[in-house]
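Board work, copied verbatim: Exodeoxyribonuclease III
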Amino acid sequence: MRITSYNVNGIKARLPRLIEYLDEVKPDVVCLQELKSSDETFPERDIRDAGYGAIWHGQKGFNGVAILARGADPVERLRGLEGEPEDEHSRYLEAEVDGVVIASIYLPNGNPQPGPKFDYKLRWFERLSARARALLGEERAVVLAGDYNVIANDDDTYSVRAMASDALMQPESREAYRRLLSQGWTDSLRTRFPGGGVWTFWDYQAGAWQRDAGFRIDHLLLSPMAADRLVDAGVDKAYRGREKASDHAPTWVQLR
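↓ predict structure ↓
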């Protein structure tokens, strides 16, 4: 089973690139983030014509997550996280596909920091950690896939100095990520590339793509039962270089 995490940065604007990816790579499951689409305007027909069933949790103009499954409809388990009933952001969607529990996650960016957006990021992280702990308790194959907006290690960025004041690399953000991992999750891409230097995001500004000035913020975390099935993990970097591409590249894990 090949599971891809893909922040599309606007599904309507990137739909041709997404359909290309589905047609050329044929992943079994795709977790999308940053749809920037309401539930009503999600392009379900185009997705189904490409051979995929879908569930989605949209929000007009912002956020939004979806899970696509090749030749099947994902069975929804949960949308949204408990803990802040007033939180209307569409950032979490959980489903089951072929016996694997899969979540599509779009963690808050947190900039500017310090401030309320950064505080919200850390609170959201704690809510995610609570859900992750409950999922581990099910003792099943689980994949938490998404844009975590965290540069976890110094070798996950082209320049520590350039990102030093960014919310993605603050000690509190890194510590929240490490606490999540310490529950027993495996960072699949880190396992595959322990030396770092693998990017999943390149900004549109300042020629970042052309300079390969990127960083790794898209992660697929595996429960112990999923980690036992790990075959490979990687980044489909070439798709970032296509015309009108997302600023993220599809990031994936292969399970037996």
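The first strand starts at residue 2 and ends at 7.
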